[in-house]
Amino acid sequence: MGNTEIQKWTVLKEEDVSPSPWFPLLRHTVKLQNGNIIDDYFFAPLGDVVILVALTPRHEVILVKQYKHGLGDILLELPGGMQQKEKSIIESALNELEEETGVKATASQLIALGKLANNATKTRQITYGFIVFDAEVTTVQKLDSTEMIDVINVPAPQVLQMVKDGEIWTVDSVAFILKAALLYPDVFGV
């Protein structure tokens, strides 16, 4: 452990090498603190994400089951999605909740659970988590053309068990379910 203060890298050049609008990719030439230059540092500025722990009045967590092509698997997760163009994180969270589950909520119902970075080395993406109490389906799903989603309500303590058993295993869902359980132990039977 030295006394040297950690400094940010200096970006000397940035090139957009995105193969498609679905996957943005940048190539940076960067100068490190020690003076070394790396001319091929690739990373993906994917954009921010919202995710919601939505609890019904009976303290059931609303989960979504859908196919995820990156893993080639059908996964059980919390509802959420990318921050929408021209919309704030809050507006995007409310829209994603309604679009994926049919639950309409208001900004005053959203309680922030914080944020996390899934891969701070290779992506520029922050996931913002929220919890919503007394969530009820009041409208129909408004799915994207690539989505087919089953909505499943599971008692909160059982959701925690599903995390323990590996049935729910995406990073952001696991992290925000655990954070919600730490903040609201009575709801999750902890």
TrEMBL record:
Keyword Hydrolase (UniProt): yes
List the protein's name: GDP-mannose pyrophosphatase
Q: Source species, please?
A: Mucilaginibacter gracilis
Swiss-Prot/TrEMBL cofactor(s): Mg(2+)
A GO CC annotation given for this chain: cytosol
Q: Which family does it belong to?
A: Belongs to the Nudix hydrolase family. NudK subfamily.
**Entries under InterPro entries matching the protein:** NUDIX_hydrolase-like_dom_sf, NUDIX_hydrolase_dom
Record's catalysed reaction(s): GDP-alpha-D-mannose + H2O = alpha-D-mannose 1-phosphate + GMP + 2 H(+)
- State the SUPFAM superfamilies in the record: Nudix
Provide the alphabetized UniProt keywords: Hydrolase
Alphabetized GO MF terms: hydrolase activity
Query: Example GO biological process term?
Result: ribose phosphate metabolic process
Residues forming the Nudix hydrolase domain are 45-176
Q: Where is the signal peptide?
A: none
